Amino acid sequence: MRKALLICLSILLSATFAKAQQLPQYTWFTYNYIQYNPAVTGATECLELKMGARRQWNTLEGAPSTGFASIHGKLKKKKFNFHGAGATIENDRFGPFAYTGLNLNYAYHMRMRKGYMLSSGIGVGFKQYRINFSEMFLRQQDIDPVITAAANDFVFPVINFGLWLYKNDRFYGISLRQVNGATVDGVNEGRLQTHWTFAYGRASKLTDDILFKPAFLLNYVAQSRPSIEAQALLSYKEKVAFGLAGRTGSGLSALLKVDFLGFLTAAYAYDLTLSKMRFEGGPTHEIILGIRACGGDSESHSRCAAYD
């Protein structure tokens, strides 16, 4: 029995790690970009906390669901150059499979020419993958406790790296997540794949009160098709933003973000699936709450309207 379960476990882990896209994708990638790129760490006026949840195909049992949070802020600032530090956490679940990831981030931001800032960042942490045997249909249910415990003991080191070039009305970003490519000994193709992400965003002034904010994100994992995402937002007085988004091979999304009380932000996304999954899975919901330890704009803060 133990040997059979070990073989089964090996097959399941191979399927989990061999899939192309191993990391969650977020519809609000502009407001949650720190989950993609550690170089964003510290690019906030003051200490900022974000918490969110994403429920994909909410009518499908065992559908993917993700909980996430981040906290970051500036450390030391000398004129325009400064350090940033923070942390991110993700908890992702899909059927009997789940993982929890925690990263500690550091970034250094330095002033460039023509008003640009360049930041380089690194994130170091771990991921723990788990399998819930109680949600699997096995022919024999008396599972050896040793095997069950082993299924919750796959912990991997994770290293992320990113660059971010930004100014008051645009940004460019590139990041590599899981760059160390940790492997599972004895499991065929049991490797954490490196995820490449390229991002661009801009803020264009339409009137004194209204900004138009287009943004693009490209995700690439080896031996898979790139995933392209796009957003088009209208922002009124930097207090309310709404618009549409889309992702290749997926569907369309409606976006809404509201700032209130000077230090709170709530963002919501409704994803309408246009693939065949729409008949079984239903829509996807994503919500983020942001809390800042200050309100208003600081004169020394190098703000990027396309990102904020």
Tell me about this structure.
- The protein is mostly beta strands and 308 residues long.
- It has one domain (2-292): monomeric porin ompg (Porin, Beta Barrel), CATH 2.40.160.
- Helix content is 7%, strand content 51%.
- It has two helices and 15 strands.
- It has helices at residues 2-18, 145-150; strands at 48-55, 65-78, 81-94, 97-111, 117-131, 154-167, 170-177, 195-202, 204-205, 210-221, 227-236, 240-247, 251-260, 264-273, 284-292.
- It has a 14-stranded antiparallel beta barrel with strand order 1-2-3-4-5-6-7-8-10-11-12-13-14-15.
- It is globular and about 55 Å long.
- The termini are far apart.
- The model has no long low-confidence stretch (mean pLDDT 82).
Keywords:
14-stranded antiparallel beta barrel; Porin; 15 strands; mainly beta; 2 helices; 308 residues
Q: Report the CATH C-level class.
A: Mainly Beta
CATH architecture: Beta Barrel
Distance between the termini: 55 Å
Mean pLDDT: 82
